[in-house]
Design brief:
By secondary structure, this protein is α/β, with parallel strands linked by helices. The chain is built from 16 helices and six strands.
């Protein structure tokens, strides 16, 4: 009998749309802002109007073909999405540069790429009048079946194929990943919510513009009914802590979840910095769900070293909207309920049937029907 339910947040409780918008704007900024590559700088503004946001989203994610590939391959974290999408464009610029200046490209691909290095690359790419080609992402990965975080390191293969220069700089632990992560946080949180000074001022953020999947009153009724059954409720999400706690508190549903069962991307980052050899720990790795199951009174080391699958895994139900959630749940032996409110909507049903999800639900309010 199930005694605990761990929910993903994006695509389950809150819409992912603003996260995808912020991800696209981050890639757009990394290419066009003078703080980074600085190509065609007149294209960039830190305060775009909604029509610009819609255009950028369509272009950067190639009418969402890029998003669908990334999600279907098991990547769930928006930071990883930004890193993959931007790195693919960066490799394209280096490919063009390698035709005339292979020595510089060799130098760039032999070191960690930070913000200053991006500016150096951008100056050279600008002379060649390089332009982004967002349609190149899907073909670059179609020739391989790599899944999950292997997509990040496969960027090294793409870079060598396109430039002829071997490299190993692309990974979850790279400086460039950190650059992408910081730029994304500025877009999503806005300048006023950051823990450190922003690289780019003028961003108001999307944190106060969240869209719930179902009406808050329906969610309150759902979570209260689950609590009345004696179930422990928690969260295992790729969102950072502030981006989890504040929106759920604003909707009046945060208190239904036990605070020591709320595992977020902040917990993942702390663990990865303590144990870099274990990275990546974001989904589809099971770290957040293991943390939620054990409780945050346990150390990151205890979570990492927990023997999996759990002996009583069938007492835990994971509710998610993506293959990454499914893979993480399966690795710990938990039951998995797929909700069809993520990026692919009802089209995801056949994929979850093929994966073997225990339950497939139209939305999160149907969870009681499987208990």
């Amino acid at each position: 009998m199930v005694d605990m339910i761990l929910f993903d947040v994006d695509g389950v409780i809150l819409s992912e749309e603003r996260y995808f918008d912020a991800s696209a704007l981050t890639v757009w900024e990394l290419i066009h802002s003078p703080n980074y590559l600085g190509l065609n700088t007149g294209e960039f503004t830190p305060a775009p109007k909604e029509p610009t946001i819609r255009r950028v989203r369509r272009e950067v994610f190639d009418n969402d073909h890029v998003l669908h590939m990334i999600k279907n391959r098991g990547i769930n974290a928006n930071w990883d999405m930004v890193y993959l999408t931007f790195s693919c464009q960066l490799i394209g610029f280096l490919e063009t540069l390698a035709e005339t200046d292979p020595q510089s490209v060799r130098s760039f691909l032999s070191q960690n790429i930070d913000r200053q290095t991006l500016q150096q690359i951008g100056r050279k790419a600008a002379v060649l009048e390089s332009k982004p080609d967002y349609t190149a992402f899907v073909p670059s990965f179609e020739q391989t079946h790599v899944q999950k975080q292997e997509m990040l390191t496969y960027l090294n293969t793409i870079a060598e194929e396109k430039t002829g220069i071997p490299t190993s700089i692309f990974s979850r632990n790279s400086t460039l990943w950190d650059v992408c992560q910081q730029a994304f946080q500025e877009w999503y949180l806005g300048n006023d919510k950051l823990d450190e000074p922003a690289i780019q001022t003028g961003k108001k953020g999307f944190l106060t513009d969240e869209i719930p999947i179902v009406k808050p009153e329906r969610m309150k009724h759902l979570f209260q009914s689950l609590k009345d059954r004696g179930l422990t409720l928690g969260l295992g999400t790729g969102r950072p802590e502030i981006e989890t706690v504040e929106p759920l508190a604003a909707l009046g549903i945060l208190d239904f979840f036990e605070r020591n069962r709320i595992a977020t991307a902040k917990d993942v980052l702390v663990a990865e910095r303590q144990y870099p050899e274990k990275a990546p720990l974001s989904k589809p790795q099971p770290f957040t769900f293991v943390y939620g199951r054990l409780g945050k009174e346990h150390s990151a080391q205890e979570v990492i070293e927990t023997r999996l699958p759990f002996d009583d895994g069938d007492k835990l139900l994971v509710v998610g909207d993506s293959p990454a959630d499914f893979y993480a749940a399966r690795s710990i032996g938990a039951r998995f309920a797929a909700v069809l409110t993520g990026l692919s909507g009802q089209k995801a049903r056949s994929q979850f049937e093929e994966l073997g999800a225990d339950y497939i639900l139209n939305d999160v309010t149907e969870v009681p029907s499987v208990l």
